[in-house]
Amino acid sequence: MQQYEQLLKANKAWADRMVEQDPNFFESLVEVQRPAFLWIGCADSRVPPNEITGTRPGDIFIHRNVANLVIHTDMNMLSVLQYAVEVLEVKHVIVCGHYGCGGVKAAMSRHSYGLINKWLRHIKDIYRLHVDELAGIQTEEARLNRLIELNIIEQVNNLADTSIVQRAWKGRNGPHLHGWVYDLHNGIINPLIDIAANTPLEHEIYEYDDLDVQH
Ligand code: CO
User: Fold this and answer.
1) CB-based burial of residue 58 (10 Å sphere; 0-12 exposed, 13-18 middle, 19+ buried)?
2) Which of 29, 121, 173, 207 sits in a 20 to 30 Å window from 185, CA-based?
3) What b/e readout covers 87-106, taking b as 16+ CB neighbours within 10 angstroms?
4) pLDDT tens for each residue of the chain, 215 residues long
5) Distance between CA atoms of residues 82 and 23, nearest Å
6) Is residue 177 in a domain?
7) Are both 110 and 12 inside the same structural domain?
8) How many CA atoms, within 13 angstroms, populate the side-chain half-sphere of residue 39?
9) Whether residue 95 is found in the same domain as residue 53
10) Count of domains in the chain?
11) Would you name the residues annotated as active-site residues?
12) CA of residue 34 to ligand 1 center, whole Å
């Protein structure tokens, strides 16, 4: 059997198992999705959101990219965010990164990786913002792991700085923003930061006074 055929075979077995446990399982999800969470995570194959959080189809709206970045000109991420926040009205937005992140590691190096340099450049900027703290860290692994944490915290602040989130905060006092880091060594997620609705932003320059203007 080809490697890809194994996926299709496993899928059939999974679907059978789900129906066995709950004959109505798929039908109950067909009409509408009401996830309470938006997950913005790393594309890394070792950090599958549903599996590591014990959640099921219908529970989490998911966006993944290299190194879980929230870039304010990324129309893909912004479209997911807008739909999740304004239409699905998710209660929580979670940015989940992970220790040992290859994207952050590549950004910390001086090696050129081609097109992805453009994407990783955002992480180099975060390194520069925190160079005093990072330069004082002795081992490269510890420095990488700290940059991974700082990157997650930065991305959560980036969420708060969007007009999408600010408008929702004023309108419905949500969503609550979270920054989590997953440890590949033991499978545990540790919370790093959370920002409740209407918390003052990291800097007033990001605040919009006239949010009735659309996007
Ligand atoms: Co990663």
Assistant:
1) middle
2) 121
3) ebebebbbbbbbbbbebbbb
4) 899 999 999 999 999 999 999 999 999 999 888 999 999 999 999 999 999 999 999 999 999 999 999 999 999 999 999 999 999 999 999 999 999 999 999 999 999 999 999 999 999 999 999 999 999 999 999 999 999 999 999 999 999 999 999 999 999 999 999 999 999 999 999 999 999 999 999 999 999 998 876 66
5) 34
6) yes
7) no
8) 22
9) yes
10) 2
11) 42, 44, 46, 98, 101
12) 27
Do 84 and 96 contact (CB within 8 A), yes or no? no
Q: What is the pTM of this model?
A: 0.95
**Ligand 1 centre distance from Cα of residue 68 (Å):** 7
Whole-number Å distance, alpha carbon 16 to ligand 1 midpoint, is 32
Tokens of 69: 């970045």
Full residue range of the structural domain in which residue 26 is found: 1-31
